UniProtKB/TrEMBL annotation:
Source species of the chain: Sphaerotilus microaerophilus
Lineage: Bacteria, Pseudomonadati, Pseudomonadota, Betaproteobacteria, Burkholderiales
Domain GMPS ATP-PPase per the UniProt entry, residue ranges: 200-401
InterPro entries named in the record: Class_I_gatase-like, GATASE, GMP_synth_C, GMP_synth_GATase, GMP_synthase, GMPS_ATP_PPase_dom, NAD/GMP_synthase, Rossmann-like_a/b/a_fold
Binding-site list for ATP: S227, G228, G229, V230, D231, S232, S233
Stored PROSITE patterns: GATASE_TYPE_1 (PS51273), GMPS_ATP_PPASE (PS51553)
Designated gene of the protein: guaA
Known pathway: Purine metabolism; GMP biosynthesis; GMP from XMP (L-Gln route): step 1/1
Keywords (A to Z) from UniProt: ATP-binding, Glutamine amidotransferase, GMP biosynthesis, Ligase, Nucleotide-binding, Purine biosynthesis
Coiled-coil residues: none
EC top class, as a word: ligase
Assembly behavior: Homodimer.
Origin superkingdom: Bacteria
Protein name stated in the entry: GMP synthase [glutamine-hydrolyzing]
Role according to the record: Catalyzes the synthesis of GMP from XMP.
UniProt EC number: 6.3.5.2
């Protein structure tokens, strides 16, 4: 396994992503992690990340001495290269001037790291590699024992190596996709140089994870809040595989879910997996509290608060539950579908980062439940969670769904939420999604559902005039929203085929009595957001 020390770059997670893609297990830890932790982790190789390092103080971030003494290969990336140079006796010139964007790097001499890489090999070590650079500071003098590995016109030392020790460093970012051979470079480092086998795959992971959960939980009871989303579903399936009936899932239906969602979740988990699921029908309670409330943030707060309340009440019942034998004193564990990006974002690695994402999750349960936390997906990325879900037998469609916000249709019905609106919206949304799933794009052979990152209908509580048959109608409007994005922080509206939009529109207007007009949202984020509220 590989240890990644994080110096606070925005893209450190991508390094981990690429290493896992090479089927090698890795973890990210903060750059100042203790020597004992590093020894206990026993990495076969260490990668030092880049950094946002913008102030003088940040330039003091260093790797612990043990990194150089452990006798394992080390790869420094960007800031990681600079700190390697600075710590091992080279020279770094700190500067305010940033070089940012594409660069062409020329290989110098032969190194085990670059020789195997396609672009370099073609012209006997003189090939060019298209890379992504983002740095101000640079190494100006190699540390003793190092040789030059690569350079660009503006950055003469763009790569260096001490092959006896297995120390390599590059100024550019191999982890971003703009660096065309970046994955190949990282794969070479972890497999050829650090000697990791590359056998980290999901099938094996299930066995390991099941064993770990059994050991952790013993014969105690676990409760889990099931939302129907990917993370909680996969966590439920995995824990159920490990401990069967010791797991109870609580599924809170707030009446603002997608059409048939409740039935689908119950049929999947109770029906097919034979898991214990408590289906809490809390529609009336939620609708009651939302009555007359129009402000989006207020609605979010109410839905979040009620969710916690309902869940807590169920948990209290399960916590106090005694089995017939009287030996079991009820649930001791709360399971959650926390995944790796959640851990890193909420400060699992503590190096400071510029905050670019504001959290607006509901369902964050307070720690006061007094239960121990079981989070079996903590080490996995989203796509690994999906792979795991499929390996556990969950349907592909469920595991590869678009994200759905915690407050659900509550933020897709503009203004006051009413049960009547929710019913109309569910049906319109269902038609839209059904057509997206059915329509295949001929260029890519993918469905438009797979070609979009998130798609849904929004209910507009305004009425407009229409004509149907001989009569005049005066009904509500829905807007269709479909976006393409890789990170949900920026997004483009999807250029859906007109024929598809036409079919969706006519189906909604014909099949959903109460809606007589359909519009398509052509706003990108920013300045619009993905949701309408
Ligand atoms: P926006 O609308 O901010 O959405 O562009 C970005 C992503 O976040 C989701 N979203 C939410 N998810 N609770 C959630 O769990 C919320 O309150 C919430 N608001 C937005 C949105 O669906 C999109 O994927």
């Amino acid at each position: 396994k590989i240890l990644i020390l994080d110096f606070g770059s925005q893209v450190t997670q991508l390094i981990a992503r690429r290493v896992r893609e090479a089927h090698v297990y890795c973890e990210i830890h903060p750059n100042d992690v203790s020597e004992e932790t590093i020894r206990a982790f026993a990495p076969k190789g260490i990668i030092l990340s880049g950094s946002h390092a913008s102030t003088y103080e940040d330039h003091q971030l260093r790797a612990p001495q043990i990194v150089w003494d452990l006798g394992v290969p080390v790869l420094g990336i960007c800031y990681g290269m600079q700190t390697m140079a600075a710590q091992l006796g080279g020279r770094v010139e700190w500067s305010d001037h940033r070089e940012f964007g594409y660069a062409e790097v020329r290989a110098r001499g032969h190194t085990k790291l670059l020789d195997g890489i396609e672009d370099f090999r073609t012209v006997e070590g003189h090939g060019m590699l298209k890379v992504w650079m983002s740095h101000g500071d640079k190494v100006t003098e190699l540390p003793p024992g190092f040789k030059l590995m690569a350079s660009t016109p503006s950055c003469p030392i763009a790569g260096m190596a001490n092959e006896d020790k297995g120390f390599y460093a590059v100024q550019f970012h191999p982890e971003v996709t703009h660096t065309l051979q970046g994955t190949a470079l990282l794969t070479r480092f972890v497999r050829e140089i650090a000697g990791c086998r590359g056998d980290w795959i999901m099938g094996n992971y299930i066995e390991e994870a099941v064993a770990r959960i059994r050991e952790q939980v013993g014969d105690e009871e676990v409760i889990l809040g099931l939302s129907g989303g990917v993370d909680s579903s996969v966590a439920a399936a995995l824990i159920h595989r490990a401990i069967g009936d010791q797991l109870t899932c609580v599924f809170v239906d707030h009446g603002l879910l997608r059409l048939n969602e409740g039935a689908m979740v119950m049929e999947m988990f109770a029906g097919r997996l034979h898991a214990k699921v408590v289906h809490v029908q809390a529609q009336d309670q939620f609708m009651g509290h939302l009555k007359g409330v129009t402000d989006p943030e207020q609605k979010r707060k109410i839905i979040g608060r009620e969710f916690v309340e309902v869940f807590q009440a169920e948990a209290a019942k399960l916590k106090g539950q005694d089995t017939a034998s009287g030996t079991n004193k009820g649930a001791k564990w709360l399971a959650q579908g926390t995944i790796y990006p959640d851990v890193v974002e909420s400060g699992g690695t503590k190096t400071k980062k510029a905050t670019i994402k504001s959290h607006h999750n509901v369902g964050g349960l307070p720690e006061t439940l007094g239960l121990k936390l079981l989070e079996p997906l903590r080490e996995l990325f989203k796509d690994e969670v999906r792979e795991l879900g499929v390996a556990l037998g969950l349907p592909h469609d469920m595991v590869y769904r678009h994200p759905f916000p915690g407050p659900g249709l509550g933020v897709r019905i503009l203004g006051e939420v009413k049960a009547e609106y929710a019913t109309l919206l569910q049906r319109a949304d269902h038609i839209f999604i059904e057509e997206l799933r059915k329509t295949v794009d001929e260029h890519t052979s993918k469905t438009w559902y797979d070609l979009t990152s998130q798609a849904f209908a929004v209910f507009l509580p305004v009425k407009s005039v229409g004509v149907m048959g001989d009569g005049r109608t005066y009904d509500y409007v829905v807007a269709l929203r479909a976006v393409q994005t890789s990170d949900f922080m920026t997004a483009d509206w999807a250029e859906l085929p007109y024929s598809l939009l036409k079919r969706v529109s006519s189906r909604i207007i014909n099949e959903v009595r109460g809606i007589n007009r359909v519009t398509y949202d052509v706003s990108s984020k920013p300045p619009a957001t993905i949701e309408w509220e």
